[in-house]
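Task: complex structure prediction.
Instruction: return structure tokens for all chains below.
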Amino acid sequence: MRKPKIVILGAGYGGLMTTVNLQKKLGVSEAEIVLVNKNDYHYETTWLHEVSAGTLHHDRSRFKVADVIDKSKVKFVQDTVVDIKTAEKRVILENGELEYDYLVVALGYESETFGIKGLKEYAFSIANINSARQIREHMDYIFATYNNEPVKRDELLTIVVGGAGFTGIELVGELANRVPQLCKEFDIPREKVRIICVEAAPMALPGFDPELVEYAVTQLERKGVEFKIGTAIKECTEDGIIVAKDDQVEEIKAGTVIWAAGVRGSHLIEKAGFENMRGRVKVDPYLRAPGHDDVFIVGDCSLVINEEINRPYPPTAQVAMQEGVTCAKNLAVLVRGQGEMEVFKPDLKGTVCSLGHDDAIGIVFGRKLFGSSASFMKKVVDNRALFLQGGAGLVMKKGKFNFF
Amino acid sequence: MRKPKIVILGAGYGGLMTTVNLQKKLGVSEAEIVLVNKNDYHYETTWLHEVSAGTLHHDRSRFKVADVIDKSKVKFVQDTVVDIKTAEKRVILENGELEYDYLVVALGYESETFGIKGLKEYAFSIANINSARQIREHMDYIFATYNNEPVKRDELLTIVVGGAGFTGIELVGELANRVPQLCKEFDIPREKVRIICVEAAPMALPGFDPELVEYAVTQLERKGVEFKIGTAIKECTEDGIIVAKDDQVEEIKAGTVIWAAGVRGSHLIEKAGFENMRGRVKVDPYLRAPGHDDVFIVGDCSLVINEEINRPYPPTAQVAMQEGVTCAKNLAVLVRGQGEMEVFKPDLKGTVCSLGHDDAIGIVFGRKLFGSSASFMKKVVDNRALFLQGGAGLVMKKGKFNFF
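Output:
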């Protein structure tokens, strides 16, 4: 009898958690498991703001997929997914094709620019390891260029971050730590550099506890970050951005613009024809795509409604990893044809938002945290993610222990 | 009685050697000594190919002027020279003016592009610390960009060095060592990267011993450097260079073009009205500008003829530093109004050309050197320059001891 073939697309939080849980649950004879990923490594998406700012080397935020999978049970294919043909139960790759009996789509997020003119062309976005280290190198190059110009252009040194949501705030926190290092490296007075965070909503970190938000904004302003709240980016140009607040339009010249205000699910979701909202599929209680009993969707391409507030859970690593656990359990039930599938219910332990390596805010188990205790907790969260993906060995290799 | 005022312009090899020798020779009461320099640091110009390639951090190749001058005898002014008015015995600075009784012009070199179209706009040149680290950061950025593009452009990774003279050869030697590190850092296969050295003359290192040149070229080719000898750069564009060999015209697309084929003396020499050839003044036997008994010119702005072969000595650090010693002696004679000025006669100990940190060629005390012994000698030469400028302490701080 042919073993059922499970194909998992993507080795991000959702896909990798599905894989490592599945390889524990299923025996070699029970199923063929194939994991497809563009790169031979997994990266910690939630650490990319540090890589982008240049405060953490990219090699510290990634590890080889081969190091955490059980090669006797999982076949790893390094390739890029081009399309999914659900009717034929086939996946088209750049360099081949795969058939499946069960499919797990864990293709992650993309930047969402909401049609704002020039953002795609002129702004950077934190999409992956490649783009994060490009941001780092761009800033290095801009700072290295400054002192070479016959007439110095201070605006080159302005860094604009679009969005004061979670990613935007964490990014400016790192930048506030990084900029003094850059100034020292390239003989530039600190006061020449501006870090500007622009947010269209009427507050930073919309939806977060107001007391924590006030703490965050005050701390970041103390480190030299300027906030422009209630201010929308209208356009991004070669020279910077054009913003509007009420009816006031202003141009902010900047050598670096980083868009950190919107994400959406993979464009492959739309291409494959799944019913979706901005690349996210509202999955059934077992994490399957509606109308596709053989296709699970986990991570940022999935949409799960929080019934208590009738709004979607945010696309976080925490939710993606918990989906991976449930997805693996449900796949085991289907493969064996026995037992009951589990209904996915996120268990939100809390949220911590870093403000640089030495400060943070958060709510953990319902308790508000500030400063060093929140910063400590952030590193615990980061190390826990590593532990769930690759065990204690991975934590020792890539973990964050600069607690104080 | 007013003390005579000696103003030294530039803290490069020539100016700094004049200063440190002068402060040893003259007492506090004998003269007022003022040293003017654009930066608060001196840098080792002969190490800039390493800074540019990214194999040596720029802070390793510079030190504070304040660390080597005797503040009781020398006043240091950090400013940029704008013009020299010899008739009025005045120097115009960006932020002030200085009068002098004796002037030492040690304003160094500039890049000479011989009118080749586009070089100024699109090619980098190794002029100083600022430009060297910009080259390093540019290459980092280009390599970081490569994997972000939807269609990868291999030509981005091509590095063209214009000129296979001393600087060009030393630069490609460092690049050959640096490129594998860049490839590892940015996940790029080594074979995608080309290092091309273009030289218009019919051989690399024109004028150098042919056996040594052959060794150098063979070793560098083995490390992946491509030579295009007898090939002239006709134009530099945004996309690369256009070269011609015999009547064959070829475009070489490149993400980085570094011009290392020509230097000239400072443009201020011409502006001040000294008789000159490409910013270099043919000085009298005591190193004075013809017709100016109170103006000494040392370093790359001076031109001294080697009578034996009736050609100018090359503008090297070795000659500049020896000129500084003679210049200081002669100034002491003039200030005291006693003794005889010394005729400048270079004592050429040899030349060593590095081929990366682990290889070199050279002629030292008339003996040919290859490989590790030449590489060792190169580091001895570098450390000796530091010793002459700032003593044993400076050698310990900035010296090169990675001998093997």
